[in-house]
Design goal:
Length: 414
């Protein structure tokens, strides 16, 4: 039998999404709560979560085992941020100020600012500089409880800089406790070197994608006016599927223009944003296996309408939550803040919000059965919340307090 190497005893509670795989409908809010609880870990994996006397009997701490007193604390799975643009140089503070004076995000984009200003800054830096920034951003995320994060490319928009971004993210993750999952977002917007979106997508497919697949496990595209339309998205996503990538899409952020019908037809992994999705789109997504990734910090940051989250949940969609951390539309790396917004603005319960940024977010990243739950056999990624009730994670606005973070069975701080 595996030896217990980390033993967390006498917790007030251990809380986890129940079941296996993505949760939808009523089960989205069904948690497994052990109270009181102990957790036994061996190496990088969870051995057991349960009643203190049972865990002590079946997996007693050995002589070299680290023991942690869990009294007054709550164990939760490490959070999974399934949508971030954490790899970028520069900032958009001047643009933030312009927006505070009334300029819109789309106007700034159309005038050559927005995403393209971050592209200019990111193209100028070296892979080392970029890796250092990603490493710093991963540290910010970890502070807020994120132990696994997706990181997209998409601020290079040419072969050299897109590959530089993907390599930098990989380098940063080698030095950080946070595990990353890389997504190729070559078609984020059309760079100035190209006349049309179609020509740029051809270039992406022929010249960038074959090398990007060495570093990325998924592909993404921004379907929106001023960026890419459905025919280009179809061509790109089909090419990415042939290369074996999981498929995702930024869709319905400002306008509904066919993103959901295409996503459902192709059976892609997720459509992310959905602020502009109407009832029909929400219902068709809910009937499919395409996950709905909601990004309420972005809606807050840009003052967008909110997605039909309650309808998506009621109709049985696979709902996930993420930060969308990026310099322009969501300069926010805190999933607990996103959970609070989900509860206060989207009508999700704290339990639904927790599942949406743990088990369901893990599903979006293709990590079912590996992370996102506190259960035997899962990777030992865990948070010890310094609060009497697990709901403080969403309830204490901007005040998440962790007594410890545990990554792959290693205690990071206490
Ligand atoms: O998800 N909408 C497209 N992409 C990002 C924003 C990127 C940026 O503004 O730099 C988003 O909101
Ligand atoms: Fe995004």
């Amino acid at each position: 039998m595996s030896e217990t190497t980390l033993f967390i005893h006498d917790l007030a509670a251990a809380v986890s999404p129940s079941g296996i795989g993505p949760l939808r409908g009523k089960s989205l809010g069904e948690l497994e709560i052990h109270s009181p609880a102990s957790v036994a870990i061996s190496g990088e994996s969870i051995l057991a979560v349960g009643k203190p006397e049972d865990v002590m009997r079946d997996h007693p701490p050995g002589t070299d085992c680290v023991s942690v007193d869990g009294r007054g604390k709550v164990a939760l799975p490490g959070l999974v941020d399934c949508h971030t643009h954490a790899c970028f140089l520069g900032d958009r503070a001047p643009e933030f100020e312009l927006r505070s004076g009334g300029a819109s995000y789309e106007e700034l984009h159309a005038a050559g600012g927005g995403i393209l200003s971050t592209v200019n800054a990111t193209r100028e830096g070296s892979e080392e500089e970029l890796a250092a920034v990603v490493w710093r951003h991963l540290g910010w995320m970890l502070d807020h409880g994120t132990t696994t994060a997706e990181v997209k490319s998409g601020y290079g928009l040419n072969r050299e800089s897109e590959i530089k971004m993907l390599r930098a993210a990989k380098r940063a993750a080698e030095e950080s406790p946070v595990d990353i999952s890389s997504t190729f977002l070559g078609p984020h917007t059309v760079p100035p070197e190209f006349e049309t979106a179609g020509e740029y997508v051809d270039h992406v497919i022929d010249e960038i994608l074959p090398e990007a697949v060495r570093y990325a496990g998924a592909a993404d595209i921004f379907v929106e006016r001023g960026s890419f339309e459905v025919p280009e998205a179809r061509r790109y996503l089909e090419a990415c599927r042939e290369h074996g990538l999981a498929l995702r899409m930024h869709g319905d952020q400002f306008t509904e223009r066919g993103a959901i019908p295409l996503a459902v037809e192709l059976g892609i992994r997720s459509v992310d944003h959905l602020e502009a999705t109407g009832e029909d789109g929400a219902k068709s997504l809910a009937r499919s296996d395409v996950a709905a990734v909601l990004l309420p910090a972005c809606a807050l940051f840009l003052d967008l309408p909110l997605p039909l989250a309650r309808l998506l949940v009621q109709e049985g969609a696979i709902v996930a939550l993420a930060t969308d951390f990026n310099p322009g539309s969501s300069f926010c790396e805190s999933l607990p803040l996103v959970m609070n917004l989900a509860c206060t603005r989207l009508g999700l319960s704290p339990a639904e919000a927790l599942t949406a940024c743990t088990a369901n977010a893990a599903h979006v990243l293709g990590l079912d059965g590996k992370v996102g739950r506190l259960a035997s056999g899962y990777q030992a990624d865990m948070l010890l919340l310094d609060a009497p009730d697990w709901r403080y994670l969403a309830y204490h606005l901007g005040g998440d307090r962790f007594a410890a973070r545990i990554k792959r069975g290693r205690l990071l701080s206490f």
